[in-house]
Structure formats: C-alpha cells, structure tokens
Hints:
heterodimer, A: 233 residues, mainly alpha, two-stranded antiparallel ribbon, two-stranded antiparallel sheet, B: 651 residues, 4-stranded mixed sheet, 25 helices, 6% strand
Amino acid sequence: MLNAIWETEGLQTVGIVVLVFASIKLLHLLGLISFSEDSVEDELELSAVRHRPEGLEQLEAQTRFSRKELQILYRGFKNECPSGVVNEDTFKDIYSQFFPQGDASTYAHFLFNAFDTDHNGSVSFEDFVMGLSILLRGTVQEKLNWAFNLYDINKDGYITKEEMLDIMKAIYDMMGKCTYPVLKEETPRQHVEVFFQKMDKNKDGVVTIDEFIDCCQNDENIMRSMHLFENVL
Amino acid sequence: MATGVAAWLPFARAAAIGWMPVANCPMPIAPRDNSKKQDELIILNVSGRRFQTWRTTLDRYPDTLLGSSEKDFFYNEETKEYFFDRDPDAFRSILNFYRTGKLHYPRHECISAYDEELTFFGIIPEIIGDCCYEEYKDRKRENLERLQDDQEENMDLKMPNMNFRETMWRAFENPHTSTMALVFYYVTGFFIAVSVITNVVETVPCGATANQKDMPCGERYTVAFFCMDTACVMIFTVEYLLRLFAAPSRYRFMRSVMSIIDVVAILPYYIGLVMTNNEDVSGAFVTLRVFRVFRIFKFSRHSQGLRILGYTLKSCASELGFLLFSLTMAIIIFATVMFYAEKGSSSSKFTSIPASFWYTIVTMTTLGYGDMVPKTIAGKIFGSICSLSGVLVIALPVPVIVSNFSRIYHQNQRADKRRAQKKARLTRIRIAKSGSANAFLQSKRNGLLNELLELTGTEEDEQKLTQKSISLLESQHHHLLHCLEKTTAHEFVDEQIYEQNCLETALQTYPSRSPSVSSHDSSTRTCCSRKRKRNVPLPNTSLPTTHSTHQGPLQELSAIHIQCGDPLSHTASRSNLNLKTDESSRINCKSGRITTAIISLPTPPALTPDGDGLHRPPQRRPPQPPSHPPPLSIQTTTSSAGANIVKVSAL
Lengths: 233, 651
C-alpha cells in the first residue's frame, strides 16, 4: 500500500525534477540565461589578420630583386593571399597543388618553418621575398646555409639522423605511391645513411654547418644543381 | 595543376634547392624561358567598355578564347586592342574568372544570355564556383522545363497526318482538341460522379419496411443499384479498353498510375460477378467493395489540382518520411512515459504501451477525444508536454511540403498562362516577321507593276509604287530568293494562300465569279466588301503563266478605287469579316489614308485562273488590330495624297 503511494509519488517527483532541468536547459538554449561569464566572448570574432609589407624601396635594398621583379612577385603573392600573409594551412594547400600525386604537407610544413624566419606562424611578403632572394639570387654559401636551416628542424645547429630521416620521409611522401621502382619502407633510411656517410666527416652522428658546407662545396653535382634555378624569375 | 597558383610556381621551383644536397644524382636541366618579354597590359574593348589586364592573367587558362591565340582574330590593329562585340556586363564575370580563378553567376543575368557568353568565350559552365552553382543549376532547370513545355505544345500543334490511333490518344490526353474528346471527357466525368454517389447512397438507411428494421438503400433497391453499377462499370471498361488500344506504348500505359487506378476501380465488380455463388468468400467480397471508392481517384484526370497534389506528395516523399519517422519516435517515447506514469493510478485506461499509442496520437495531433485521460499529476504533466511537442513536430515539415506544392502549382499556372499567351504572341511575331517574307513578293510585284505601268503610262501609280526604296541588303536578299525560285522552277507563296490551295484541292468550291467584277471601274461599297473578301485571301503568288499574255494581267490588274466612308468603330467582330457586310469593308479603310494594296491571284493549275481563286472563303484571317498595317497578303504603302480612297490593285 505504502509502496504504491511511494511509487506514484516517486515518479511524480522525478517528473518534476526532470521538468525543471529541462526548462532551465531550454532557457539557456534560447539565450535568456547564461551560466558562464565568458560566453560573451564567443560573439567577438577575431578580425582577419592583415598585413602590409614594407615599402618597395626598403625591399629593394634588402633583397636582390629589381623593382619590377618585386612588383610581379607581390602581385602574384597578393592574388593568392589577399590578406597579405600566408598561414601554414594555406601554404600547405598551395604547395600541395604542385604535387598532386603525393602528400606534400609534411615537406610544406618544414618549408614553412624555413621561410617563417621570425617564427610568428605566418609568412608575410617580406619573409617570402627574402627567402626567394636567397634561393634565386644568393651566393652558393647562402643557399647552402638556407638548406641547412631547412634540414635543421629544431634550429640547434646540428642535423641529427632523426631530423634528416623526417625530412627524407617528407620528400619521399611527395612522390606518392605510384613510383618506379616501388618505394620500400627502408628507402628513406638508406638514403639518410648515404647522406650521413657523405656529410658526417667526424662520424659523430650529427652534421654541423661547416661539415655540410664543406662537403657540398666539394661535390660537383650539388654545386651544379645550386645554379639550376637561377633564371626562375 | 591549378592555374590559379601559377604565380607560386617560381617559389616552388626555388624551394627545390632544398632537395639538392640530398640528391645523389645530377639534376635535369631547367627549361629556358626564352620569351623574356615583360608582362604587358592587354586592353580588351568590350562594346566600348575597356578592360585591362595583364597578359599572364589571361594566359592562365589556355583552353579558352582569351587565353589562346583565338583572341588574335579580334585584334584591332589601329587601336591596338582586342575588340569584342559582346555584353560588357556579362564580360565582367568572365574576366573575374581569369583574375580569381572562380567563375560566378550573377543573379540578375538571364540564364540563356549568360550561357551564350560562356560558350563564346570557351568557358565550360561546370566550373562555376560552389557559391553560385546551385542557383545556376536551378535557373537552368527551370529554363529547360519551360523549353520542354514549349516543345510539347509545338508537337501538339503540328501533326497533320496522324493515324486513327494517334488521334484517339491525343483526344484522350487533351480533351480540348476536338468536340468528340470533350464530350467523352464530360461523359466519363459524369459517370464517375454518378458511380461515387451511388456507392455513397447505397449505405444510407432508406426507411424501414413494416417488419424489418432500417435497411440501407442498397439492400432495398438491389436491382436498381446493380443496374447503375453495371452501367458505370461498362463505361469505365470501355474507356479503359479504348485507352489501352490508343496508347502509344501499351506496356508503359499499363504501368502508369492512372491505369492502375482504373483497373482497381472496375475489378471489384467483375470479381463480384464471378463470386456471387460462393458464400464463404462473400466476406472478402464485401471488403472488395471498398475498392470501389478508388473511382474517385479517376477524377484526377479531370482536375489538374489533384494531379499537382499527387505530384507534390510524390516529390516530398523524403519530408513526409521524416515527418512520419519523427512522429513515430515521439509517439513511442510519450506512450512509454504515459504508461509508466499512469501505472499507479487505479482504473486507468492506459493498460499497455500500445494502448497508450492511441492517447499519444490523439494528443499530439491536438484532437483530444477525451476517451483516455491521465489522472495522476505526473501523467498530466507529461501529457501537456506531449501535446505541446506534438504541435511542434507536426508544424515543422509541413511548410516544406507546402512550399513544394506552391512551387509546383505556380509553375503549372505559369505554364498555363504561357500557353494562353503563346497564341497571341506568336501571331504578333508572325505578323511582324511576315513583313519581310512578303517584302520579297511585294518587290516582285513592284517590278512587274513597274513594267506594266510603263505600258499603261500611269505616272501617278508609278510614283506611288516606287516610293518604297529597298536597301541594299534587302535587294540582295531578294535576288537570292529569286535565284532559288528560278532554280527550282517553283515560286514562293503566302502561307494563307498555300493552305487555301490545299483546301481547294480538297473541296471543290464556290461558284466562280467572273473576274470582270474586279475590273477597275466598280467602285461601290458592296464592291469594296466583295473586294475585301477577295483581297484578303488573294495570295501573293505570281502568275508565271500570265506573264506571257499581256492582256490577262492587264485585265486583272485592276486598280479598284474604293470609297471609304467614315471609319467604322473597331468593334466589329473579326469573325464577321467573313460575312458580306458593309461594315467589314470598312475595317481597313481609314479616313485620310490611301493604301495601295498589291494582291495577286493564285494559280493552282487545277483551277481556272480567275474564278475560284477569287471566291475562296477566307478560312482564317489573322487578327488585325485596325491601327496596324492591313492583313498579311496585302502590302500597303500609305501616302498622304487624297482622302478616303482605298486603292486596291489586284494582279
């Protein structure tokens, strides 16, 4: 007898509690009540980042491009990125379009870090143009320096085998699956071994900048290929 | 490779230096860029509006007109720019495509005009960006539907030679095409109504006889109802068989919804005939009679609104499905809750969850019969939540269905309106166009008349006739047509005259009246009326045979002077033009206007040249607003000399 009453009463209580909670949730959903104070911030959206580069004269002075070349470069740059800066995702996007068969995102990530010299997460036009200036108009020394910087992921002045392996894997990723001969798992590793054999003179397991530059300057192939892209622009 | 990022290619190539130290083998030689010219500005002059862009921008898409050497065809040496005689507004979006790599569809632009521009510039419409693609596709679909509608209409109209079967099918599908079809349409409609009413009245209690209780009318007047039913079913059967016979594709017809409805409507009767003896299955037989109600669906052939409703429901199938699904979910949830809430209360009607379904449905649809009501507080709370949510759940998908219905309905209305306007539109267009067709024929008359008038020496006429100066283009065109005539040894005739020729060969006609009536001296009004009657059907065919005889044409060349009184009000109905009334004669006579009409007689070889041609009753006269130039077969030139004289020359 009592049980029956309690059953009913219990269910009624449960019902009322559920009802109360549901109505509170509904009001919250409708925006009439707000629980936390920081919900207001959601309304403020981060305005788009915009960046204007330094003047043409300054860039001319800092890089080895002529005015006309800078103009052409900037027009292309601004066309793709109207906001004036490239963030990593856009960069990856653009770079991946040149390598449709493979996955260029890892390498693009390393490239991005190499270009983003001030490490603020975005490549502005100055960074872009400085990088290009080195790559296209720089001395061999500068180019090799740049390459070393690219390989040295943590920027500590040494290229370890792991860093090189990462870079190598990224490069091989760009090839994709359909290659001839078929890409095997240990191909990047073997390539790294070859590289280290060539570069690591004192066999201490890391390659320093001097070892790197020395070795490259003694290698004919590398020297020749450094001049390959000189007439790109 | 996406050409939009072509600007970044130098960067990608430069970044390749990063691979060099790692590479073991020598690199291939880079291609030399021999065309070292500076990036130059190109001027594109589109109908006077100048657009300028870099050459490299255009070179991004080499398979389009602007990106390839095809644009050299449009290069203007003197102004050193590329000139396109196209719409500058549409060109904006095309040029923006080169600049940004995305093609947008401007909403205010007409879809066919835009398509044409795209085709001209060699851009495929599929690359329209996602932002505009949906809109583009929608408009394109609407346009296509409209074109299909028009095509269907055209197909309906032309088909002069159909065999019996096709005629019948057409009569079935469009009852307005012939009287028989209309009669048939109404008869079947009537019988459907009769059948439905019979079914309904059959069950009404008819009044008790002395010893028995109330019987439904069906059982009381069995014979009468049976006869009625038989009659209706016979008509339906005949109709079905006729349709089956006339259908172009019998298999497809049998699968169509309407035919299935037809079959289902008449089948119970036949099954009933077969099964009357067997008492066991009479229960099933009674159930079958329910299917007789399907006869009411046969009305959908008679009502467009019903068809649209059916089509809407079909096209909203997914929304209906969603509605059903969400309702089912809600019903189950609430039924369960109500059952458990009411479990405790004594004498509760909520005996099981399925029993609670009934309560939930009735509450959610806000019917509220009241045969099941919750008694506990929890039950009442949940019951109220149930009814509130019911309103919401039902109200949500309904607007989608409604908007679908509205769209289809309006589309249909627009199609009907278009069809109604089409006739008038086409006629107006035809009148405007036939000016050019008849210009050729008229110029021929002009040429001939000039010769003849030289003979007769009436200067005045000559002046009037040569007033109309023909442009070089026209004269070249006429020469071309003339050459064709000479090549094929046939001549161009007016459409009306052609049809009348056809008609004539079918029916040998009127008593011929001698053309002497048409001689130039008759100038009475009745003459005018007759002449008008004659003038209109008289085609602008030439008379190759009569050229040889001088007298013939001369005699037939009669300049008829017609006195026109006060211009009649334009209220004379067009259909009366066929009658020999004086009023009809005045329709084209306006005070203060001289019209020189050139008309020539037809010469169907089978008929005497003069007689019958004159009295062919005009089968069709194009609607002529009186202020417009006179009917097709009469070319007129107005001149201001004189007053109230209509000069009609019949050749």
